[in-house]
Design brief:
Number of helices: 5
Low-confidence stretches: none
Distance between the termini: 28 Å
CATH class: Alpha Beta
Bound molecules: nicotinamide-adenine-dinucleotide
Shape: globular
Number of domains: 1
Helix content: 25-40%
Radius of gyration: 16 Å
C-alpha cells in the first residue's frame, strides 16, 4: 500500500511510518518540522520505501498529486501542545482547520478517494463534568475568548 502521513516527523506519525514500512508499504511523510524532529525518523530515514518532504500542509503544491498516489492518508499535521496553543491561537486555527480542509478537499477531488484518517482529540468533549461521555452527547465548550479553546474548537471543526 501507498501511505501518506502529514505531520509524519511527529510522535505518532513517525511510529506510524515505521509500522507501515515494516509491513512492506511505501510511506510518504510531509512535515514542516515545527514540533516534529528528524530524530524521530532517524532509524528508517534510508529505508528504500520511505520518502519524506519538509513542507507546510497549508501550501504544499504536490498535495493533490500525492493523494492520487496514496491508498491511505493519515492527516496528523497540527499545531499541538499547551505552550503553542496558548502562544499562537491564530496559527492553531489556521493550521488545524484550513490544513484539514485542504486535505479533505484533495481527497474528495481525487480519483480513488483513499481512506483518510484524521487525528482528533479528547479535547473535543469540552467542559462537561460528566464522568463518562458519548460521541453523540451535546457538548459544553468554554468561551472562545480563552485562547486555550482554540485547539478543541479546531479539532471539533475538523470532525464536523
Ligand atoms: N499525542 C497525543 O496524545 C494526541 C492526543 C490527541 C490528539 N493528537 C493529535 O494527533 C496528531 C499527532 O500528534 P503528535 O502527538 O504526534 O504531535 P506532534 O507535534 O509530535 O506531531 C504533529 C506534527 O505536525 C507537524 N506540523 C505542524 N504544523 C504543520 C504544518 N503546517 N504543515 C506540516 N506539518 C505540520 C509538526 O511539525 C509535527 O511533526 C495531532 O493532530 C494531534 O492533535 C495527539
Amino acid at each position: 500500500m501507498n501511505i501518506l502521513i502529514t505531520g509524519g516527523y511527529g510522535f505518532i506519525g513517525s511510529h506510524l511510518a515505521e509500522y507501515h514500512l515494516n509491513r512492506g508499504d511505501h510511506a510518504y511523510i510531509i512535515d514542516n518540522l515545527s514540533t516534529g524532529s528528524l530524530d524521530n525518523i532517524s532509524t528508517f530515514i534510508n529505508h528504500p520505501l520511505f520518502h519524506f518532504e519538509e513542507t507546510n500542509i497549508l501550501t504544499w503544491p504536490d498535495l493533490n498529486k500525492t493523494i492520487n498516489w496514496a491508498d491511505r492518508v493519515y492527516h496528523l499535521a497540527a499545531v499541538v501542545g499547551v505552550y503553542r496553543v496558548l502562544a499562537e491561537p491564530i496559527e492553531v486555527v489556521a493550521t488545524n482547520i484550513a490544513g484539514c480542509e485542504r486535505v479533505l478537499r484533495a481527497v474528495a477531488a481525487s480519483q480513488w478517494q483513499p481512506r483518510t484518517i484524521i487525528a482528533s482529540s479528547s479535547e473535543v468533549y469540552g467542559h462537561s463534568q460528566q464522568p463518562r461521555q458519548n460521541e453523540s452527547d451535546t457538548l459544553i465548550m468554554e468561551s472562545s475568548t480563552n485562547a486555550r479553546w482554540s485547539y478543541s474548537i479546531s479539532k471539533l471543526a475538523d470532525e464536523a
